Amino acid sequence: MPLTRLPLTDTRFLFRPVSTEFVAVLEQLRPDDWLRPTMAGTWRVRDVVAHLVDGMLRRLSFHRDGLTPPRPARSLTNDRDFVAFINDLNAQWVAVSNRFSPRVLTNLFSSAGSELADFMEQLPLDAPALFPVSWAGETVSEGWFDVGREFTELWHHQAQVRAAVGIDSLQDPRYLRAVLELAVRGLPHAYRNVLASHGTTVSLVVVGPSGGTWTLARESEHWTISEGEGDNPDARITVSEDAAWRLLFNALSEAEAIREARITGNRDLAMPMLASRSVIV
């Protein structure tokens, strides 16, 4: 499969079906299901759902309604400050959400999800981005990528809840395929400090109905990402589609990733792939 430029990934019309199916999941949960641990750190199912509601309400407020985001209490001078700021915002809402019943959280998600889908579906594909996609190393992003990043949030958090309560993943492969197409765009940033000679390539092969093959290539001063695989990559990492999303969305430790992945070629070149994350961490 020759190398080709990554396609633009249009997720505007994927929010509604994924949100609708997730509401059906939430409506069938038992009271104890809401307290089950998830792969999202210390968050329980109810915390993950609350976080999704928070993200949707923020997006509607800041993007649709034009509300100026509140300024941080202190200046953000580096990536560590930014991550701490985002973590604090998330933790504040999750703490408040402990006052909400599962029914209230479900209704909030249903309402916010419907409004967000309405908004996303009417956006022009070339609309300006609200925020740059920081995990891809961008200070300015195209609008479709910002929207796509929002979709990856919805998809991977609903997947965390499904896994926690033992409900099968979404069956339509186009949803996870879109998530993977977006997530691999963060790989050049993940490799930014990896030195290699011009023309060095590292391929990621994701196996499954939503899978594909992507290749990082070293140019003179940076890495690029393409779809496909050229002849004889210097390193190749092969993983299942389930392991791929868990890896890229911070649900696999490096040790777990090593067990899940099959690596051929230069192992040192492959290892940064297993530490890559397409979320703010």
Strand order of the largest sheet: 3-2-1-4-5
* C-alpha Rg (nearest Å): 19 Å
Number of helical segments with 4 or more residues: 10
Determine the CATH superfamily of the largest domain. dinb family like domain
Order of helices and strands: HHHHHHHEEEEHHEH
Number of strands: 5
Dominant shape:
globular
The appropriate CATH architecture of the largest domain is Up-down Bundle
Strand content: 5-15%
Under CATH at level 1, the class of the largest domain stands as: Mainly Alpha
Q: Give the domain tally.
A: 2
What descriptors fit this protein?
single chain; 281 residues; alpha+beta; Four Helix Bundle (Hemerythrin (Met), subunit A); Nonspecific Lipid-transfer Protein, Chain A; 2 domains; 5-stranded mixed beta sheet; 10 helices
Fold and architecture overview:
- The two termini are 33 Å apart.
- The chain has two domains: 15-171, dinb family like domain (Four Helix Bundle (Hemerythrin (Met), subunit A), Up-down Bundle), CATH 1.20.120; 187-274, SCP2 sterol-binding domain (Nonspecific Lipid-transfer Protein, Chain A, 2-Layer Sandwich).
- 48% of the residues lie in helices and 10% in strands.
- A hairpin with a 4-residue loop joins strand 2 and strand 3.
- It is of the alpha+beta class.
- Strands 3-2-1-4-5 form a five-stranded mixed β-sheet.
Quick recap of the structure?
With 281 residues, this protein is an alpha+beta fold. The protein has helices at 15-27, 45-64, 79-97, 102-122, 143-165, 173-183, 187-190, 241-248, 254-260, 267-274, and strands at residues 201-207, 212-218, 223-227, 235-240, 262-265. The model has no long low-confidence stretch (mean pLDDT 95).
